[in-house]
Structure prediction request, 725 residues.
Amino acid sequence: MGLYSLSAMLLAAVVAIAIMAVSETFAIFVPGLLQGAWLTLQIALLGCVLAVTMAVLAALARLYGPLPLRWLANTYVEVFRGTSALVQLFWLFFVLPHFGLTLEPFTVAVVGLGLNVGAYGAEVVRGAILGIVPGQWEATVALNMTRWQALRRVILPQAFVAMIPPWGNLFIELLKSTALVSLITLGDLAFRAQQMNQTTMKTIPIFTLVLLMYLVMSLAITICMRLLERRATRGLARGRSA
Amino acid sequence: MNTANDATEQPMVRFDGVTKSYGALTVLDDLRLDIGRGEKVAIIGPSGSGKTTVLRMLMTLERINDGVIWVDGEPMTHMEKGGRLVPADPRHLRRVRAKVGMVFQHFNLFPHMTALGNCIEAPITVLGLSRREAEERAAELLDLVGLADKKEHYPAQLSGGQQQRVAIARALAMRPKVMLFDEVTSALDPELCGEVLQVIRKLGSEHDLTMLMVTHQMGFAKEFADRVCFFYQGKICEQGNPQDMFAAPQNERTRQFLRAVMDSV
Amino acid sequence: MWDWEYAISIMPALGKAALVTIQATGIGFLLALVLGLILALLRMSGPRMGWAVSALIEFIRSTPLLIQIFFLYFVFPSFGIVLDAFTAGVIALGLHYGCYCAEVYRAGLEAVPRGQWEASIALNLGTYATFKDVILPQAIPPIVPALGNYLVALFKETPLLSAIAVLELMQTAKMMGSETFRYTEPMTLVGIIFLLMSLVSAAGIRWLERRLNRRSAR
Prediction:
């Protein structure tokens, strides 16, 4: 969808939530749900930071690391992509304590989701780096740059542009997977929804509000990434049409 | 013979029995070629004759299978260790490679940097110049290639000829002793070749750079080069000064090639 | 730390649960394939309809599957339709991934050259016949790998059905854990089962991709 349609949807969703916040049926649910949404947002943001870090590290290790490091990165990517996010969360939550390592549910959430999305992100980063034409590498050799200098100054800045759209999708996936943390006792948006649903059985208003709140967060991410992409491509193709 | 004391008597570049093959396909076979200081050498030949590989090996973009490449009196692909030549480690390779610069057929400018940015990047990160020094040097060189007014332009805003001239300035900013030109006009529209060749001509007359170029522009080779090497199937088939060679090629292959090229012009 | 005897003793039960997981995956994906095609066609049918369908797809793709599962499971009864957990879960899976598949179909349909439509008109084929005999046979093969990737993705989301107590792998493992207070074996085994199935299906998709490439290259 275009940027305008997305913005229109975002606006409509925000207005809808605002109207519900003052209407009788919905108003009682809003404050509690907003609290949950705040936790959701915190987990999502920290998860994103971890995911990007892990993705870059794993991609670089797979591409340029010494053999043991490459294997480690390969294993990480395959295991986290091959099992499901919920299995990973439960494993960290239920099994890790048996090995003597008990993490806070919040930490489990951030680590679990960050590692999961980071594994997918590693493929994105790797693909973007491999997508840079060989001539760019050759130019850095001719200028006697080291591989690290070449990566940092020439290859990654260009690969960055190609990474923005797939990362946008991954951030949305991460935001959506935060709902899973409700199953490991965290009081996020999904958790509050279930709780309110169980006590009041007003399923339709509660879940409508919750869906709208997730929609607002997702659309905000999508729109930000589109704007970022537009800016980044403009920098790269400045005057290409001229 | 490889260890003369006076470095100035050494050739600038020496290919000493260099062989390059991809699997069963031999691209260059036991290449022996000396290039003197300040000498301008043009490499010509049909496609697939291995001529671009010569430059790419000298730039360390291709690994060689056998032989040694010497630059400025010291081995580049190898290094001396306990009186023997062993394959070079990355550090040695980088140190010797600093003497060589290259201009590519497809420019390979960094699209996310301006013309100036392209020219100061490596001087700052590799040579450790201050930003001011690098910018002064780059400004001088962009002026030399006639693009003083395009400093802040991005590659996408420049014509092919202008991009190639920026690429030349970028390579010169590293102060190489040997410059390699790999079919630098092949990707350009014919009307843009002139401005690039003009820059190379100027470099040749004003600097004592050693230049090695692969080219299809026979007219330019004839007028500019001190020596022409004709490559055929991975070997030097004939070499000599351009006047003699273009006027009276000795080898049948050379004759055929020159006839074919001249006809097409 | 790891009790092999216990691990072996729970394997038959996990195997049975794996069948439920596979069933949910199969039915859910079939639903996604059909729904996706319908959404893709509706989207192409006109500008207003197109916008509405796009907005719906955006909405479903932007919100968590877990919430959608809850929504279907708890909302249907209020309309007098009582769905068992398995059915509600599978419908949610199919709906969610149908929206992803719709995008894939669209890409496939848009890749068929306009000339194919024009040739069909010139041959006086009806719209339905054109679609069935000319367009779809060209649009589907190139997108099979992409659809396959969503099959694997859907498979990996089936543990969410445990949230409404469907007795698939995850729920079974969790119940075993809460009965015996030994989570290590069931959870790890579930992870390994998922990993194996994912690796096998990824290899299957690569194989399919190669075969399709070969056919289209011929």
Remarks:
- The domain at 23-217 of chain C is CATH 1.10.3720.10 (MetI-like fold).
- The interface with chain A takes residues 1, 51, 54-55, 58-59, 61-68, 70-71, 74-75, 78, 156-160, 162-163, 170, 173-174, 177, 182-184, 187-188, 190-191, 194-195, 198-199, 202 of chain C (CB under 8 Å).
